[in-house]
Amino acid sequence: MSSTVHICAIITPAKGKESRVRELLSGLVANVQKNEKDTSKYELYEQYSAEDGANVFVVEETYKDEDAFNTHLNTDYFKGLGEMIGKENLLAKGLDIKKIKPVAGYGSSATEQ
Fold first, then answer.
1. By C-alpha distance, which of 12, 15, 112 is closest to 64?
2. CB-based burial of residue 17 (10 Å sphere; 0-12 exposed, 13-18 middle, 19+ buried)?
3. Taking 70 as the threshold, does the pLDDT of residue 19 lie above it?
4. Whole-number Å distance between alpha carbons of 106 and 2
5. What is the pLDDT of residue 50?
C-alpha cells in the first residue's frame, strides 16, 4: 500500500473576485513548485459555467506522504493565502479539501496505488 497522499481542493470564488483568486492560486502553485520537493503534482484548473457565470478552481495535488502534505499546510505562503482569502472575502463557499485515492483509470497517479 502506497503512502502517497492525493488531494482535490475545490475553491469557489465570490462573484467578481475570480481574477484575484486566480492570481493568488497561481502564486501558490509557483511557491509549491519552488519549495516543496516532496510534492509531485500541484495543478490548478478552472471550471467556468456560462449559465450562471460562476468560476470554480480545482487544484489536484499529490504528495509523497502525509508528512509532505502536512508540511504544505504549514508553510508560511499557504497560511498567508488563507489569511488573505479571509481578509479580502474572496470565497463564495468555504475551501473544500478532499483526500482522495485512485480507484481506476490510467496515468501516473493511477499507478501509485
1. 112
2. middle
3. yes
4. 17
5. 64
> What is the spatial distance between Cα 32 and Cα 91, in angstroms, rounded to a whole number?
21
What DSSP letter does each residue of 31-73 carry, written as one string? HHHHH-TTEEEEEEEEEE-TTT--EEEEEEEEESSHHHHHHHH
**What's the predicted TM-score (pTM) here?**
0.86
- The closest alpha carbon to 75, from 9, 41, 29, 17, belongs to 29
Burial bucket for residue 69 (CB in 10 Å: 0-12, 13-18, 19+): buried
State the Cα–Cα distance between residues 6 and 3, nearest whole angstrom.
Answer: 10
C-alpha cell belonging to residue 32: 509549491
